Each structure stands twice: as structure tokens, then as C-alpha cells.
Fold these 3 entries.
Entry 1:
Amino acid sequence: MGFVGGLAAGALGIGGGAIFTPSLLTLGIPPLVVTGISLYLVLYSTTASSLIYALNGEMNFELGIWIAFWAICGTIIGLKIVQAYVIKTGKQSVVVWTLVYMFVVSVIAVPIFGGMNLKKQFDAGLNLLAFRPLCF
């Protein structure tokens, strides 16, 4: 599952979580465990991407620290809310529905914002079909 999921994620340019999370849920793994596994896998891809951007001098460290701070705050608050809900109700479905919601929002938002970006580049006179060198 790891090889096929990684190959599909790399070939399609999507996050592995979109492939691994539903697969693991289908195998009957509890949603809280699936979420932890998914975040653990994301750690490696984001670390590799960040390293590449930093080595190419394209990393904005101040913005990264600002985003990381608020992401950690949101994670802690969200974790406390979900833990309280799961303890109160005994249901882990809130995790599944949150993942479904985020996936649906992504499926809608990515093409819209991607199309807007392409239109802006086209209007600026960029040749969208031209190849760019790998090393800038």
C-alpha cells in the first residue's frame, strides 16, 4: 500500500494523505490512529520539500515561523476539542467527518485557485506551455 500510494501521490501531485487516509479507514483502523499515521507520513514529505526550498534560497523563514506558531496553536486547540467530544460521546466520527470536510473543500478550492493563478499568468503574457529549466 505504501509503494502504490506514494507512486500515485507523486505522479498525480497530490498529498499522500488523500490516498492513505481513506485506505487505512477502509482497513478498519480507528480514525484517531489514521490521523496520527497520516500526519507522521506528512512530516517526511514536508521536511524534504522544506529542505529543497531552503537549499535553493527560496525559503521565507519569518513567514514559516509565523505560520508554524499559529498551526501549533490551532492543533492544540483542535486536539482538546476533539478529545473532549470523543470522551463525552464515545464516538470518533467527528474525526472522519472533519477529514471528509477538508477533502471536499480541497477538491473545490484547488482547481478554482489554480485556475485563477493560471489566468493571471496568462494575462501577464507568460507562455504556460513552455518548459522551464530545472535549475534556475
Entry 2:
Amino acid sequence: MVNLAKDDQEKKWIKEKAHVVPTHGMYGLAQMLKRIGIDVINLVNYALDLHEYQYNGFEPGFSKYTKKEQVLEDLITVVKETKKAIDSHFAKYEVKEVSQRIDELLKELEGGK
């Protein structure tokens, strides 16, 4: 991914910060990942919407959400899409336990729908 950097400053950021991405850098990192075949842009958009909701609640003009059910639906989407990304891009690593825990979380979340 470092090879995709546009300049030395971006290379430095990737090496030092990409593993702990600040909120304002998530979309840019998602765009970089897409260029190497890992498309998580929609996932990041959902996550950023939920982050915005965390700060603003249901405040008109600040949140895309008007009901708790909408928040829950997007939260479930984020969990499912994260699992898909892990399964498809990190299958060579032992992620069985992570996958099982995600399944447990989904059962719990979907039971609350």
C-alpha cells in the first residue's frame, strides 16, 4: 500500500498512522485500499454515519438517523460487512475465533430487531 502513496509525506503517514486511522482519515484510506482491490468505501461510510450519530444523536440537520431502528440496521450492516472483509481479505490468517465472536454478536443484535 505504501507504493500507492502520492508523495513522501503520504508514505510516512501510511507507515506511522494507517493502523490507527483517525476518523478524518478513514475515507482517504478506504480509497487507497480500493485501488489495491479492497473495497470498503461503503463500510467506511456506514461507520462514519454511526460515528456522527454517536456525537449528535437524532439532532435534525446533524444526523442521518431519526429512529433507533435505523441506527441498529446500519450497525448490523457494519458488523456483517466487516466480517465479509475479514473473511475475503484475511482468510490466510487464523480468524476463526474472531468470526465466531462476530456471529455471536450478530445473533444478539438481530435478536433485538
Entry 3:
Amino acid sequence: MNTLKMRRFAGAGMLAAACLSVAVWSSQASASTARAAAAAHTVKISANPSGMLKFTQSSIKTTPGKVVISFTNKSPLPHDVVLINSKNKVLGKTPIFAGGTKSFDVTLTAGKYTYYCSVPGHRAAGMQGTLTVS
């Protein structure tokens, strides 16, 4: 083989190795992302379907880590769910809606959190609950 052909052959080999390396890294990153998503767990919260201004559960327990808050509203009234910590900092919320399910992701540490409906008058009427993480 002449020198030019050898250089082209070596260059093609190096390019193939680089592509393989990127493909392996990308595959590992995707697997890592999938494991992280699988590690999240879901907390389900529902509005009272009869239209009463309350959630179907006033107390929920879960474990620390990534949590998906899934809020289902089968009530004839529009509602949302807002999650706050002990310092009243909003950690996540859904939009106000009627019918269906909306969710948000949050990472929680051990402690007590409050969830409530932010539609005017709903929280004052008792539409709130406690999420305990331990």
C-alpha cells in the first residue's frame, strides 16, 4: 500500500472508532436517564368528584426523592394543586383545570409539606392536605 492509501485507511478507522465511542456513551447516558426516570414515584391526589371543596385524601405519605405529583380533577368545578414546604415556598403546581389529570415533578426530602387548591376560597373552605415524606 502506498502512504496516501494507508493514511486514508487509518483515518477511516479512527473515524469509525470515534463514532462507536459516541454511540456507546449515548447509549449509557440514555440508560442512566431511563433509570433515573424509573426511580421517580407517583403521588396521586384527586379532587372530590361530587364538587365538594376538598381532596379525596387529606393526608398522604411517600418516600424522599424524585416524585411525580399527579392531580386528577373529576369535579364539575375547576381546581389545581399547589405543593408548598414549611416555609410556604411553592415547590410545584398544576394549572387550574376541570376534567382530566395534570402533573408536575418535584424532588422532596424528609419532612411535611402542604398541598392545596389555589382557586379563590377553596383552600379556606378546607381544600388542602398534608404530604409527609419519610
